[in-house]
Amino acid sequence: MAYAKTAVNRQEALLIIVFAFLISFSSIMASTDALDSCKPTDSGPVVKTTPLVSFLETVQQTSLKTFGHKNFDPKLYVDVSLKYNLNTTVEAFNKLSIADNGSVSVSDLNDFLAQYLEGADEDLVYAEPVDFVAEPRDFLPNVENPEMRAWALEVHSLWKNLSRKVSDTVLEKPELHTLLPLPKPVIIPGSRFREVYYWDSYWVIRGLLASKMYVTAKGIVTNLISLIDEFGYVLNGARAYYTNRSQPPLLSSMIFNIYNQTGDEEFIKSSLPALLKEYEFWNSGIHKVSIKDAQGEIHNLSRYYAMWNTPRPESSSIDQETASRLSNVCEKTQLYRELASAAESGWDFSTRWMRNASDLTTLSTTYIVPVDLNSFILKMELDIAFLANVTGESSIAARFTEASEARKKAMNAILWNAEKGQWFDYWLAETNTSKDAYTWEASNQNQKSFASNFIPLWVNLFHSDAMIMEKVIQSFQTSGLLRPAGIATSLTNTGQQWDFPNGWAPLQHLIVEGLVRYGSEQANSLAKDIALRWIRTNYVVYQETGAMHEKYDVEKCGEFGGGGEYKPQTGFGWSNGVVLAFLEEFGWPADVKVGCQ
User: Which residues are tagged catalytic?
Assistant: First the structure.
């Protein structure tokens, strides 16, 4: 048996090499001279892929060449699972007659897919939420308009549609699946996003709390903590091909909000160790950046930096096509790192990460210290201090209170622009190849308008200073970001989905909640205005399409968004959650009309 196991391991190792060649990984290692010219970030860590993922990427490539680009979704082919073990499946695949252009006959490939692979939707099965009721007690008490209330109940009912649990087959034979086993039921975003996603889960939970579904909300947190226990951080999503990166860290905020609703101290105690581990992930190694300010003081902030420098498996064919515009092997390697890092940011993709707004190959995510990421980590520090105080961990509370003060100081020294009344992403100098701290330069602040410039409102950075807060609010109002149907992501229309004219539920919610937390009459009025615009456009699109959408066109009320590398998606977890959270916060009077104005 030991000899057989060794032979299988050797076979699998050989298969990895063959598949890597087939999907052009070999080009990345084309020459030692070329690698020597790579940028310093190319020496960053890389999380190894699995034999299964490598094989499915090969199937993906062959399928693209066979079926063509029309309606082709590369993610589908890495979401499928195997009916038989990997060796048997590979042997069958290798018997297909492959043409010189890499294609096979459509009938042969369809026969193979049907005989050897399970459907992409079969890893997760429907799970009735144990805490769902059609109309919860005290549900949105201030929504008085009957049309709006009826729609809110429909949105509430969508939690049932999006509820899943990992199938028994995944639990019994995880080696046949790219889906990772999770202990509790999940709420998926919807459509092609068949698995749990990290930062989506925060707004899903905010909606679940409005729906009084506390058990489901806690289960989502339990799942995310299980990923930290296994990998040391929350993955981008619960797939084997997402182990190379995380997403905006909002786990502490999920736990904080659940505690505020339930008062469950045991829940905090069991969660705190995972939060400490996640905090270390974001504040050490490749994610940590030291910058010397104008007074010579060194500050530590964080950045996105994926542990990956080849095409993303779920978008492998797309990434290779993007990189084909580059001739240099090392430039391609760097681009793959930047593509994955932009995916870690959640903003995939946006001119925010690009040196040239018209050229995706100029992505430079790892060279940017982002306003929103550091706002999220500041919130993590504040949350951990609060939660540790609740559980009597006074030394932890003191440590994180101190850390939060240091980050506030760092953000205001490096990212804040007093003249403009905004926080700006800071671009790191490419010429700093040493391990010394970067030197702050005012010209390295990216002063273009992005919704992310105002995310620090959410963490009360200047809430005690009325003059500064009024300037921030005025800066937001004159930024051009506030449009008829909500807040635009940027002011640049490039066809990328995290650019104009798209608006996204998370950005609306973060800025609106930040304004509410400040609490001035002007801030509250502005927050309500934004929320009502957003609710109206969601309502009208739902009435017209019968679905909640991933993103919306904020230039016109009643239009869903587009752009990016996949078709517009419906479902949709975080959009549902933000609508319910807004209706809980602001209500809807009986005499206020619904629909676009």
Answer: 348, 550
